[in-house]
Amino acid sequence: MFRAKEMKRVRIIVLKSKVDAVIMDLHEAGVVDIRKSSYEGLEDGRPLASFEELSTELMKLRSALGLMEATAGKKPEKEPELIPGARALSESRGLAAEVKLKELNRECNALAERLKTLENDGATATKLSAFKNVDFSRLSTRTLAFKAGELPPAKAAALSEKLEKLGGQLVQEAEAQVALILYENNKAEKVETALSDAGFTELPLPYGMTTPSETLKRISAEAGIAKGQLEASRSKMAELSRANIAKVRSLIRSLEAEAERAEIAARFASSRSIYVIEGWSKADDGPKLGAIVQKHGDAAMMEDVKYGHKEMPPTVLDNPKIVEPLEFITKSYSMPNYYEFDPTIAYFIVLPIVYGMMVGDVFYGLFSILFSLWLLGKFKKGDLLHSVARIWLYCGIPSVLFGFVFDEYGGMSHFHLMEYIKDWTGIALLNAPLYTGFHRMEDALTLIGITTIIGSIHLAAGFIIGAYNEWGHERKHAYAKLSWLGAEIGLIVTLLPYLNVVFPQLAGIPAVLAIPGGIIFLVSAAGLAVFEGIVGIAELPSLLSNILSYARIAALGIVGVAIAEIVNDYVMPLPEAGILAIVLVPIFLGLHAANCLLAMFEALIQGGRLNLVEFKSKFLHGGGDMFVPFALHSNKD
Asked: What DSSP line would sit under 94-121, residue for residue?
């Protein structure tokens, strides 16, 4: 729970003739994180001979699956079946549906391209409809040529004049954009220059263009035929896809497993007759791994490999299920290495307390719980928001408890709430307050003092954990952490007699206490100079700022109370408001909901910051290596 799961390094030596079977058993068991091994006198491994063909078949199947999902849908109806490797490879080689599907796809692409061409031809023919009686197929002769295109009407007169000098003719309806140019073949070059100067854009005529109306009829007929053919081909593709998509998914899953098994051999060391496999496994998986190796008799053997502190086993977090939602924080912000304290359990304890102190309202805490339950119903386990919702759920409980301590119920005391109910119902539920809560607005300085004490304890715990982490590895670093702890204690003891100006409760503390406090601080600072050098001394001022950072717990809580009280003062529905009270109800509830959501987000972010920046940095180096076992995964993993 406080440490990662115990790991052991294993070495498996297996005959090459049996390596396929051993790899398959290890893959199905999923208990070894296989690492690259290298030994003097042994060659580096390479993928098994089947890897190249498996990769080729997978590329073919994935291409086919892409076509199938485009017509049959991407969501599989059931988990793909795992087919034995040799049979999966044989079935993939003989998959006729893949070839037929590609033929149909090429046919569909050709028809779609044909329809696009017909659409463009139809647009051109429509533009030329102004020349409805012109048969374009008869315009060209041995001596005459023509061009049809778009011409700005403003330039038509000047172009017409140039064409007449060249023996050509411009035909264009008034204010029309389309023009027809007739000219002699031997003047083509000069005509081209004149057209270019006038901004003439030639239209590519449809193949076999006659009159615009006849051409449009022909295009419409051809487009109708092409659309029918395209629909028929797509229907065949959809039918073929639905019939074969489950098989293709199963083949892909099966061949991917085979490809992983073939590729993993590149991590082995090898000789002519053996492979050497090395990796990490969880200590409690030892009997399972041993049974796998023993299954292969004399063809395989396993041994544990000793490792020192210089080698870093992978990290497997080991927390109770109730704590697991907070593991995403640990994994996302510097995974602890194998030898370090796992901070997840500390987050689980401290974050809800800090959150509860910030929100600190019975109704807001209940809203936090209900909101988190709604989110849990919306998001599946494994989603980030599912974990965040679980954290909100945990944090909502202390928010309610601190709400009782602070006597806050939507910005009202319990007696104020009972009086409000009495105003509406006439029923007196209480004649006097049941208790006097700790009012954050009135006792702000005391609250700041309490939060800084919490911060001091939290940081001290971080230093102690840091010393514990380093004690068995780098004793010098452990002494440095203890020096930081001493500096914190010395600083607090030194300042205590002088805090009575802000905190009258400390008035009885004698000023002489500052002397031993100062000595402790100076001795600890000297220790930092020895164990961390000038860097440690330069960072000493940050210690006070770290402690004072916890004052944000009080500050954010007070802001939330102030906003809640303002809402109650200005928009609370009261009986004397009459019909206006009904109008104020949604505004009143909406403002409180907004204040609550703001408090929830701020409390989660700031509480997380205090854990991740101030606390975690005191003991965690991070850089842990994730445990990634060689395992057969389903689509649900």
From this structure: T-HHHHHHHHHHHHHHHHHHHHHHHHHH
Q: What is the mean pLDDT of residues 72-93?
A: 85
Do the bridges between strand 7-15 and strand 300-305 make them parallel or antiparallel, or are there none, so unpaired?
A: antiparallel
Burial of 432 (0-12, 13-18, 19+ CB in 10 A): exposed
* 637 — pLDDT class (breaks 50, 70, 90): very low
187 and 215 Cβ atoms separated by less than 8 Å: no
Identify the DSSP state of 624.
P
- Asked whether the beta carbons of 148 and 180 are under 8 A apart, the reply is yes
Contact (Cβ atoms closer than 8 angstroms) between residue 169 and residue 182: yes
For residue 313, count CB atoms less than 10 angstroms from its CB and return exposed for 0-12, middle for 13-18, buried for 19 or more.
buried
pTM for the whole thing?
0.74
Q: Could you tell me the two tokens for 548? A: 């004072």
Residues with Cβ within 8 Å of residue 185, at least 6 apart in sequence: 142, 143, 144, 145
Q: Give CA 315 to chain center in angstroms.
A: 22
Q: Distance between CA 361 and CA 406 in Å, rounded?
A: 7
Q: Could you give the residue ranges of the DSSP H alpha helices within 278-360?
A: 286-294, 327-332, 344-359
Taking residues 604-632, what's their average pLDDT?
Answer: 89
Query: How are the residues of the chain apportioned to helix, strand and coil, as percentages rounded to the nearest 5?
Result: 65, 10, 25
Cite the beta strand spans of 273-409 per DSSP E. 274-282, 300-305
pLDDT in tens, 374-413: 999 988 887 888 889 999 999 999 999 999 999 999 999 9
| Listed residue (345, 334, 342) closest to 621, CA to CA | 334
First CA to last CA distance, the chain: 24
Phi and psi angles of residue 152, each rounded to the nearest 5 degrees, phi first: -60, 125
Q: Are 316 and 630 in contact (CB under 8 A)?
A: no
3-state secondary structure 402-469: HHHHHCCECCECHHHHHHHHHHHHCCCCCCCCCCCCCCCCCCHHHHHHHHHHHHHHHHHHHHHHHHHH
Please report, for residues 93, 197, 233, 595, the alpha-carbon distance to residue 83 in angstroms, rounded to integers and kept in the order given: 14, 70, 31, 56
> Could you please report the per-residue DSSP string of 184-244?
EGGGHHHHHHHHHHTT-EEPPPPTT--SHHHHHHHHHHHHHHHHHHHHHHHHHHHHHHHHH
E strands, 503-627, in order: none
Residues 292 and 296: their CA atoms lie apart, in Å, by 7
pLDDT in tens, 251-264: 999 999 999 999 99
Could you tell me if 263 and 51 are in contact, meaning their C-beta atoms sit under 8 angstroms apart? yes
Supply 499's token pair: 């805090």
Cα(548)–Cα(502) distance, integer angstroms = 14
Q: Please count the residues of the chain.
A: 637
Query: What is the gyration radius of the CA atoms in the chain, in angstroms?
Result: 40
Q: Identify whether the C-beta of residue 27 lies closer than 8 Å to the C-beta of residue 21.
A: no
C-alpha 229 chain-centroid distance? 43
